[in-house]
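Hi U.,

Before I forget, here's the chain from the pilot set. I'm dumping it here mostly so it's searchable later in email.
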Amino acid sequence: MNIHPLFWLVPVASVVALTMAWYFFRSMMKTDEGTPRMKEIALYVRKGAMAYLKQQYKVVFIVFIVLAILFSFMAYVLHVQNPWVPFAFLTGGFFSGLAGFFGMKTATYASGRTANAARKSLDGGLKVAFRSGAVMGLVVVGLGLLDIAIWFLLLNAFYTDEKTALITITTTMLTFGMGASTQALFARVGGGIYTKAADVGADIVGKVEADIPEDDPRNPATIADNVGDNVGDVAGMGADLYESYCGSILSTAALGATAFISSSYDMQMRAVIAPMAIAAVGIFLSLIGIFLVRTKEGASMRSLLKSLSLGTNVSAVLIAVAAFVILWSLGMENWIGLSFSVITGLAAGVIIGQATEYYTSHSYKPTKDISAAGQTGAATVIIKGIGTGMISTCIPVLTIGIAIILSYLCANGFELELEAASISHGLYGIGIAAVGMLSTLGITLATDAYGPIADNAGGNAEMSELGEEVRHRTDALDALGNTTAATGKGFAIGSAALTALALLASYIEEVKIAMKEAGQTIVNVSGQVVNAADATIPDFMNHFQVNLMNPRVLVGAFIGAMAAFLFCGLTMEAVGRAAQKMVVEVRRQFREIAGILEGKATPDYGRCVEISTRAAQHEMIVPSVLAIIIPIATGLILGVAGVLGLLLGGLCAGFTLAVFMANSGGAWDNAKKNVEEGNFGGKGSFAHKATIVGDTVGDPFKDTSGPSLNILIKLMSMVSIVMAGLTVAWSLL
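Structure:
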């Protein structure tokens, strides 16, 4: 079938993104890594990170093989699955893992070079760290669009019936999102457990008990802590946002194929291409923003934040303008309204980012108040941090709510009647708002990946004893990184909410296809018989009795909300158990290896790396597998209505809980940084020790449980979509 010419912008943009990522990587590698000691420290971290990733991929490989066999059985034996699904699932996981690998490889080479550049100027350190982070951003969007382009061209060659081809193609492509989500969850959970086990152990024994500075080379857990920053915040975040990016594009494409099915085939094709084209143009505009980021020597935290905000905001404004041009050139129906849906998503992302910055940056009152609470002890720091995190959920939740309503109404011409065509077009608007929010991911993710690079640079500077001035610069970059990381997490969570809502609608379309495959060709609507192929979303809602009076929906919603808390509890406990082992090991080394605290003996860094690696591999399996089992079991027992309740409950509880945990953790971390800058007594003071405890409690909040929730939300949606055939054919109720 003919493909609209604008589609070819997608593979071109992916090649440009990957080429620029290679350029930034090569430019970073040409910079000096510093002194022999700096090179030695960087090598320790690099080897530890690669060793961990190798072990993680072994475990994930086994899980993927098992799931691929299951999907093959469903496709070729039970015939309740599209035959392309096993292959799409595997490619999604492969590309997601590859994005995380490239990002982490870059980060482990960049941290030492960032520290060395900071010896000369703050701007030099910022440029090296940020452009190295840009490698992650560009690799994620480049590989994402490449995967989408390849599958679209392949499936377009096989499916030629103009009536159903695009619906079949887009719903099949959605399934590679499950592969990406599964890989992302293992990367996020495993990496989060690894990094926080090391971080908590290093803080409790090193900073609190032994009263030695953060990243001090005398602390045996320091190398494991720095390794963890890379495997959790770089490899994990890369895989996470890869699946968000692909999920938003694919779910919107699937909604477009459905919403415009009554229009001509050409218009249906344009609706499918539109989210891909917006994402492609977003790559070029992200590159403009990346080159705008720079700062001056002695810049304050607000000045540094403005430097990064300039790049991200310019990219956002440009994509807002470009959306009108793209949708107009495609000749989309209601192209002006759809363009405003894109702008709604962009605006929501900016607002959530700004709100996160306000609640987590120590330039603002909430985090300063947590620092002040340190004067009365650790308990008040923790109470204040939890309260701040809970309050911080208001703006993101209200923002997402307004964005959902506005994007829905803009796309359907402000039609308030819940008729079939109005709902389909409105849901397409919500999907394209999610694409808008993620369209500048190239630069947004760069600001996120920058954080752990700056953090590792500070560790390298401390362990290499580069002096107070250099450490002051790296501390400034690190504190900025804490805020950008928190902003990135808020952004990821916000995009997850919009994407998950679009996936809910895509689930209905997959159920329709599954009913046809299972021979269930009728839907009973108010006593009337409607062919399943012609049924609308309201028809399916009536048929499956998806309303608040249906106990299956209510039970599903409760299970979804419970799943978010269960998942957080399991990952928090996993960090606690792993951290206990780390604390015991660090205490043992301080006690048994003579001369460590005097700097006369070298700690056994490798043993701490080994403890974190083993703990992460062991602890990540149960929560990750549960995220897959829960939607399958719910579908088999409660049917379609129960699954829709599950997804809605998981989305509402998971989104709010994720914002709370990410912002509490970020605020605690920066409250400690605020004290370390000389406020409330400075380093070594009573307030400092109290804020260290708060930071330690917040570590699994912001780097393990919180950020994993947005993957959980989307993974449960993806699993439900992939298992729709099984649910329709085999559900008990």
